[in-house]
Design a protein that fits this description.
- It is a single chain.
- By secondary structure, the protein is an alpha+beta fold.
- The chain has one domain: Alpha-Beta Complex (Aminoglycoside 3'-phosphotransferase, Chain: A, domain 2), CATH 3.90.1200.10.
- The chain is about 40% helix and about 10% strand.
- The protein contains nine helices and nine strands.
- The strands form three sheets. The chain has a five-stranded antiparallel beta sheet with strand order 1-2-3-5-4, with helices on one face. The chain has a two-stranded antiparallel ribbon with strand order 6-9. A two-stranded antiparallel sheet has the order 7-8.
- α4 packs parallel to α8, α5 runs antiparallel to α8 and α6 packs across α8.
- It is globular.
- The two termini are about 20 Å apart.
Length: about 300
């Protein structure tokens, strides 16, 4: 299953282009961008400044940062531990078509969050009422699958492209016919361990707020069930702690296999954005595409 790469795949959102945007955003605030550290480069480019306790997020998709800012302010009012905006900075600054937001630096503990921490956080989120100052959008379980596939261009062989498109249509029909056990409510939309941080004082905080929506709470509860049953990223004792913390077992729900399949498709197309970045990434993409064609578990996917 060879991977090729078009000359211009993702050339519009690269480390070089986002670093130039960072420099311009820092110049606006009269702060120094030199030596900033690139923390992530996926849906957003996330930079930690070297000389100020600030983090800049540069959005790949310009339509989502405003929602992220609204959600951050709502969670602050609700006292849910989450990343906080740097309110002294100018938010939603548009530079070269990209939107920049500024966040207070979270100084991390050496002790990383656990899946149990994730279940506790999601239970707290589960218990929040609907925000009253803005409307959350209706949840879409696969908002960027086809867009990522198109953006990947020649990085995806034609048989894989047809397979992903067909899988997307199949899972969309399944989701629309699904029955849910829990009442809908505010959900993170992209909850996983990588979207938690533990502060030096031990407090676990939620980050990456852009995918917040109104939708089925089964979606975020299924993340720890998938981590256990599909990927074996935790043992049965920790899974039981997750279920106890959240108060509901996703593996008892008939819709869980479809939710797991949707998550897997999202995980594959997220990684497609990095096609050609390294042999390691391309090898992992090929592994995931092959695994989508069968139901054998566990998945031996690496967390890149």
């Amino acid at each position: 299953m060879p991977l090729t790469r078009g000359d211009d795949v993702a050339s519009h959102f690269t480390a070089a282009s986002t670093r130039a945007i960072l420099a311009a955003a820092c110049a606006d605030l009269r702060i120094e961008s030199a030596d900033a550290v690139l923390l992530r480069h996926g849906e957003n480019a996330v930079y930690r400044l070297a000389h100020d306790p600030l983090v800049a997020r540069i959005a790949r998709h310009p339509d989502v940062p405003r929602r992220e800012v609204e959600v951050a302010r709502w969670l602050t009012r609700a006292a849910l531990p989450a990343v906080r905006l740097a309110e002294e900075a100018v938010q939603l600054r548009v530079i070269d078509g990209r939107v920049v937001t500024w966040w207070a630096l979270v100084v991390e503990s050496r002790q990383k969050p656990t899946f149990t921490d994730l279940a506790v956080m999601l239970r707290r989120l589960h218990d929040l009422p609907e925000p009253t100052t803005f409307a959350l959008p209706q949840f879409d379980p696969m908002p960027r699958v086809l867009g990522r596939l198109e953006a990947a261009g020649d990085a995806v062989a034609e048989p894989d492209r047809r397979f992903i498109t067909g899988r997307h249509s199949e899972l969309r029909r399944t989701y629309e016919a699904m029955s849910f056990d829990l009442d809908p409510g505010p959900i993170h939309g992209d909850a996983h361990l990588g979207n938690l941080m533990r502060r030096e004082d031990g407090t676990v905080v939620l980050i990456d707020l852009e995918a917040f929506a109104w939708g089925p709470r089964e979606w975020h509860a299924s993340v720890f069930a998938a981590a256990y049953s599909a990927f074996e990223w935790m043992d049965s004792a920790e899974y039981r702690r997750c279920v106890d913390a959240y108060g509901w077992d996703p593996l008892t729900w008939s819709g869980f296999p479809a939710m797991r399949a949707i998550r897997e498709l999202n995980m594959v197309t997220w990684l497609l954005q990095r096609a050609g970045e390294s042999p390691e990434v391309d090898e992992e993409i090929a592994r995931r595409l092959a695994d989508l064609r069968n139901d054998d578990l566990p998945r031996r996917w690496r967390q890149l």
